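pasting input
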Amino acid sequence: MDIYKKLEELKLEIPAPPPRGGIYQPVKQVGNLLYVSGQGPTVDGVPVITGKLGSERSLEEGQEAVRMCVMNALSSLEVYLGNLNKIKSVVKLLAFVASASGFNAQPQVVNGASQLLVDLWGEEQGMGARSAIGVNELPGNMSVEIELLVEI
Amino acid sequence: MDIYKKLEELKLEIPAPPPRGGIYQPVKQVGNLLYVSGQGPTVDGVPVITGKLGSERSLEEGQEAVRMCVMNALSSLEVYLGNLNKIKSVVKLLAFVASASGFNAQPQVVNGASQLLVDLWGEEQGMGARSAIGVNELPGNMSVEIELLVEI
Amino acid sequence: MDIYKKLEELKLEIPAPPPRGGIYQPVKQVGNLLYVSGQGPTVDGVPVITGKLGSERSLEEGQEAVRMCVMNALSSLEVYLGNLNKIKSVVKLLAFVASASGFNAQPQVVNGASQLLVDLWGEEQGMGARSAIGVNELPGNMSVEIELLVEI
């Protein structure tokens, strides 16, 4: 399986790597694990999907936002690895959804990210463990933030 | 030590494994680590302890809720491992508590989960690292959500 | 590089280890990874920087709070390891910032912690992956809580 062919089939392009939004490494390796720093729905580091689910943003916009997080994570991983085909599997996804009071469909939002990873790597390799959490505020008023752990 | 004897002594029964609430694996293994997806106080996937600590739910109800999370995690681990005696130790517990404004007793709530793990595996093996965090909203209006990392 | 010389240069003293605030291990080791339990801006276990960023606390107070979290983490690590020079690198930092409605400068707050780790261990070793998240409430009304993962 060539992940770049998959991206082409899905008509997806790896975006430019997001500039650092603070003092951290985009990707940190320990053994065969790669910890990816929290990713947002940004373009060139600027949040483009902002505001809370349940009031300012629809479920569909939330799903688009988490897909952008995944694409930014892949961009950071490509810079680090040189080639995304080195990724063996998705280990874990920790997703935070900026949630208005009474919004409880965080898993449905985060499914947008999980489905994309499964579309790219298949169920066996693309589907890791996951937690979906609601929070009141995220950096830059982003609608979602995702932390990814992958295995090479 | 036989974990099933311990469960019997404590009059605890492993519940039916919670059905997936999204696109993820209940348990994902890397090396000797098992990442367990976020668990809630659910029965057959339906949240049964909902609402915020500090307004809608008491500390005791919160502690019961986190115990349910642990039992659901054990159910998922049993499906994955076949036998819970394969678990060597609890590495880490990340707990999110749906908190009304001004509620700050998250650690006391989460102690319900930690005590159960210690009752089952003892201090040496059952007590891992831990963080307890308050959040404004959780999936399905659950009162708590717990993410577990164990070592086999 | 001697981390204790660095601490002296920066006029920093490792505080007394924070007493446990619940049923958990301050540090849990698996292989060469050390998971450090959630740390707050406490002295002898008592929160000293409390209240939300964006209303009750300034950015500078938040940065001081996260530095205290790091120092408490180092204290727990020193108890566990005997000598902080055994730490090879900072793998990951997960930071939660108690945030008033509309506060979105979590990364700027958390930079206080990240900068301290870089001052101590340098960019190569002291800069790990990171996520900065806003939440509505934290234990004991602490302004921040930080979870650290280090490699020995």
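fyi Strands of chain B lie at 27-30, 33-39, 42-43, 46-47, 89-98, 129-135, 144-151.
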